[in-house]
Specification:
With 368 residues, the chain is α/β, with parallel strands linked by helices. It has a single domain, classed as pyruvate-formate lyase- activating enzyme. The protein contains 13 helices and 18 strands. Strands 4-5-9-10-11-13-14-18 form an 8-stranded mixed β-sheet. The structure holds iron/sulfur cluster (SF4). Iron/sulfur cluster (SF4) binds next to β7.
């Protein structure tokens, strides 16, 4: 999607940070006294979600810059930390939870790279390992093309020793990051899926081959990598297709440069179904065999999930026996049956991931 309108809070100055965005977008900002004008522009459109992907709002983050990932009740949590740099996305995946998460959805860039400095310095001063990501409420690297945000963060994280920065994306927007002195502290992570799912459900994203070629270029520049098989989508023949994705990953990058791989299957809040039906009438994604999970999200019937997880895990293990694998939001039975263990103690999964972060990203092991 192309951004065609730019809004900006009137009290935000036209300085280097905002002028950079204006020049990249080739747009003059419409100054607004509050967010109402932006909401009106989004809500007044025939398809507010599509409209929201074409309007960028430069505003301030009124909440915490750094917060713990809320996780989901009843499923194992990985103790992740979120750095809140913006919201929503210019790409258009049918299953994207953000469509139903914000009311209305607004593509927001949080102004003030300086405002990250103090909360980050506070985090960096603690005797504890942090895994911090910007890709929970947005795609981390849609911003690379239009802002200095990703570059700023990579350089900031390079100068400390207790935190890993994970930039999670479905783009190939890494040009401004390749030559940076990242000091091994940034992990570039790609969500991956089969070409079939990417073609039918991930509109506007880079193809699998492009994502993996880009991962290879980043690896050559010393970046560590991560991959997220999320959401796995069940369809006839998906098992063979997911095996091929694993093969493609490891024909591009070395297993020892992969910090972790997460696995999660398609799940959705019930209210997302009508959004998908209205916006993506040809998508078949909401019509699988689903049951309501303990967190009130619809998930594939458990035996179907376990079947696909086992195949995927076995395949990954063939190529990368030592890479850390974890489930995003799965329960004890699934962990036991697929991984052969379950971290009963609170914080155990987080600790496993912290250890991998320390080992791959030159973090201080005494903080483990
Ligand atoms: S890339 Fe991520 S954030 Fe963007 S539309 Fe797809 S699922 Fe949503």
């Amino acid at each position: 999607m192309k951004i065609t309108r730019l809004f900006m809070d009137a009290d935000i100055p036209l300085d280097d940070e905002t002028q950079y965005i204006c020049s990249k977008l080739k747009l003059t900002p419409e100054m607004v006294s509050d967010s109402q004008a932006v909401y009106d522009a989004v809500n007044g459109a025939k398809d507010p979600i599509s409209a929201a992907k074409t309007l960028l709002y430069i505003t301030r983050n009124r909440g915490a810059v750094i917060r713990e990932c809320p996780g989901t009740s009843h499923y194992t949590c990985c103790d992740y930390t979120i750095l809140h740099t913006g919201t929503f996305c210019t790409m258009d995946c049918s299953y994207c939870i953000l469509q139903a998460y914000f009311h209305p959805p607004v593509l927001q860039y949080f102004y003030g790279l300086d405002s990250f400095v103090s909360p980050l310095d506070h985090t960096f001063s603690q005797n504890k390992i942090f895994r911090i990501g910007t890709g929970e409420y947005t795609d981390s690297l849609i911003w690379e093309k239009i802002s200095q945000g990703p570059r700023f963060l990579v350089e900031k994280f390079a100068k400390q020793s207790n935190s890993l920065l994970e930039l999670k994306t479905k783009t190939i927007n890494v040009a401004s990051l390749l030559e940076l002195d990242h000091n091994g502290k940034t992990v570039l992570a790609w969500s991956v899926n089969t070409p079939e799912v990417i073609g039918s459900e991930e509109k506007g994203t880079a193809g699998l081959a492009s994502r993996l070629e880009t991962a290879k270029r980043c690896e050559a520049k010393g970046y560590k990598l991560a991959f997220h098989f999320d959401p796995l989508v069940i369809y006839p023949g998906c098992e063979e297709d997911y095996k091929k994705v694993v093969h493609s990953i490891f024909s591009h990058v070395r297993p020892d440069n992969v910090v972790w791989i997460s696995i999660g299957s398609f799940r959705f809040m019930p209210q997302l179904k009508s959004v998908i039906e209205n916006r993506f009438p040809s998508s078949t994604i909401p019509y699988g065999e689903f049951i309501l999970g303990l967190d009130n999200k619809m998930r594939y019937f458990k035996p179907l999930r376990i079947h696909l997880y086992k195949i995927l895990i076995d395949t990954i293990r063939e190529y990368a026996p030592n890479v850390v694998l974890y489930f995003c939001m799965e329960d004890e039975e699934v962990w036991e049956k697929c991984m052969g263990y379950f971290s009963k103690k609170e914080g155990e999964l987080g600790h496993l991931l912290d250890k991998s972060a320390v080992a791959h990203c030159k973090l201080n092991p005494s903080f483990l």
